[in-house]
Input
Amino acid sequence: GYASLRWIQLPWGPYNDRNGETRPAMGDVDNDGCDEIVLGLGSTSVGWIYVIDDAPSNYGTNAPYGWHRVGWRAYWDSNGGTWPAVGEIDTTPGEELVIGFDSFPDSGGWFELRNDALAGTPFGHTGWKRVTWNEYNSTNGATHPAIGDVSCGGAEEVIIGLGSGGLSNLQIFNDATAGYS
Output
């Protein structure tokens, strides 16, 4: 069977009491052969994600990666919920982050691209991309990313799932070397 290995609680008491929702994604952001945990958070999290190192580092005790905030102040103030995905979308060692957003009046189908832990600025902002369905972007705009090699071409693509009103659609974006076309 599946035995419980460990409980980990986000180190943010007020958020834990107010909302407490966690949205985990996993990937090897530091290229050490073990996956880290990237926690997206629900509404009232004012745009934060939390990165927890792997089990060999005692889940962050030896190499904590900690807190990172999306680069969009209006979103922090309005909703702040984050949906992370982790995968190898460029050619550098370490897997990168893609952060999607909950619906709010102006989320507009946007998602944020971030570096891996080995970059000059660990988990630093590298760009914004947007779903290309304007009607959806203006009525809901929530983005829920996943990353994987769905083309079987050796590079991983970014897949964006949509929220309510998305008519069960998703959009696939190429990797960084193809310019996310």
